[in-house]
Known about the structure:
Strand content: 25-35%
Distance between the termini: 39 Å
CATH topology of the largest domain: Rossmann fold
Bound molecules: adenosine-5'-triphosphate, magnesium ion
Shape: elongated
Number of domains: 2
Strand order of the largest sheet: 6-7-8-3-9-10
Oligomer: single chain
Number of helices: 10
Helix content: 25-40%
Number of strands: 14
Amino acid sequence: MSSPLLEIRQLRKTYGSLAAVDGVSFTVQRGECLGLLGPNGAGKTTTLSMLAGLLTPDSGQVLIDGRALAGDTDPLKRQLGLVPQELALYEDLTAAENLAFFGALYSLEKATLHQRMADALAIVGLADRARDKARTFSGGMKRRLNLAAALLHDPQLLLLDEPTVGVDPQSRNAIFDNIEALRARGKTILYTTHYMEEVERLCDRVVIVDHGKVIADDTIAALRARAGSGGNLLKITLAQAPAGAWLPALRQLAGIRSAELAGALLSLELDDLTASASPILHFLREHHETIVHLSSDRPNLESIFLTLTGRQLRDT
Ligand SMILES: Nc1ncnc2c1ncn2[C@@H]1O[C@H](COP(=O)(O)OP(=O)(O)OP(=O)(O)O)[C@@H](O)[C@H]1O
Ligand SMILES: [Mg+2]
């Protein structure tokens, strides 16, 4: 197997007595989208800054394509494109001027730069706003321009630090579409966020960090299976609120972890949906209940984080 595009080993960074990043290791394979997830202050930005060579680790290694970066001018650095958490734009410059400025940092030839600027603006859906000043952009549009700036040197690996923070739902969807388009072009993506649903939509695998340490590194499917050993939630709305005399008998059916009735809504936690769904429906029919709505759900990453840490994800 070829070496991973990115490998970090035992990365560590302390600020005084605080270990912001405390021995973090993980790898990102070529073409993969890895989610780096953790609550506020978990150490995500500090990790990314060390990956991008903006911050020197106290100890540990960053390998890109199997090799360590040798200083700022190492051509290997061109494989990386960082989209920082804080916007890095000039408000008084137009979108195109902002991109030309960032492009100049990579000393691209004029023709190449113009082509890349046009490509980058098209990917983020701002082609028709190229001549407008950044200050006239909405928060979501600024974020998309920020993303475009990281694409100019055509990096293989994109490091995205919470690209949807402070963005309205419509722009958020546009950013997701942009990232999916980049993936389809074969880019490798490290996507940092504290939103579970973003990781669930975009990523194959997730590394969860908390207090500077990796607390999970797995596929989303495997993490789901870990939380509640693959349990399923089943919600059944009945035509009318039953007296519920049958509830204790229902709880006795095999594979039912819990069953609660709130008005006409019956909520069940099951070991296995395939095994239990049919006996439950049969049971309700025998008790002359009419089902008007039925839905099932899997444990999400939110509940996985709770299982792993005993805390809600958005707590700090
Ligand atoms: N320059 C600094 N000096 C002192 N402490 C810092 C510095 N940068 C980060 N920290 C601390 O290190 C910890 C990790 O910060 P970091 O910004 O990496 O977290 P994060 O996971 O990116 O959080 P967020 O989701 O809020 O962006 C925090 O406790 C933060 O206060
Ligand atoms: Mg951060």
